[in-house]
Amino acid sequence: MEKQDRKSRMQAIRKIVSTTSLESQEELLAALKEEGFFTTQTTLSRDLKKLRISKVRVRSGLSVYALPRDGQFEPVPTVEEINQTKWRLNFSGNLMVVHTPPGHASMVAYDVDNIKSPFFLGTVAGDDTVIVVLSEDADREVAGNLICDMFPKLS
User: Which residues on neighbouring strands pair with residue 132, listed in sequence order?
Assistant: First the structure.
């Protein structure tokens, strides 16, 4: 029964986030309560992480929760994003450095960590930079192409 309750709660979170602009976990907890789901902030935080839901800045300037790659909430570009026409990819030894717009690095790192490639040993993400540790025998060109396929803005 716990599994079903969790699944239903996760579906409710997706629905709420995709249809409502919420700025805080407290607001999301209240919306879940209205849907009949009584949960703790700790559980909600785990659910948000599992669903890869994060906050994005919307045109009004507010930071609201949004589903990953969801077209509903288009973030307002920062000055850096406006001035940056492409994401960048560089190499140094067995390190690949991926430069992203601010706030995008953790999503990139998450996706890289979850693909099953013998080339990628792990990642470290900041706000706008990801360091990807490559295996010693990794072919830079092939590894770079894998990343570019995942994130077309790099090509």
Answer: 96, 123
132 near 96, Cβ under 8 Å? yes
Structure tokens at 124: 């470290």
E strand or H helix that includes residue 149: helix 140-150
Nearest by Cα to 76 from 64, 87, 60: 60
C-beta separation of 133 from 122 below 8 A: yes
Cβ contacts of residue 116 below 8 Å, gap of 6+?
none
pLDDT tens-digit map of 3-56: 458 888 989 998 898 888 888 999 999 999 998 999 999 999 999 988 888 888
Instruction: Report the C-alpha gap between 7 and 58 in whole angstroms.
Output: 28
| Per-residue 3-state assignment (H helix, E strand, C coil) for 6-37 | HHHHHHHHHHHHHHCCCCCHHHHHHHHHHCCC
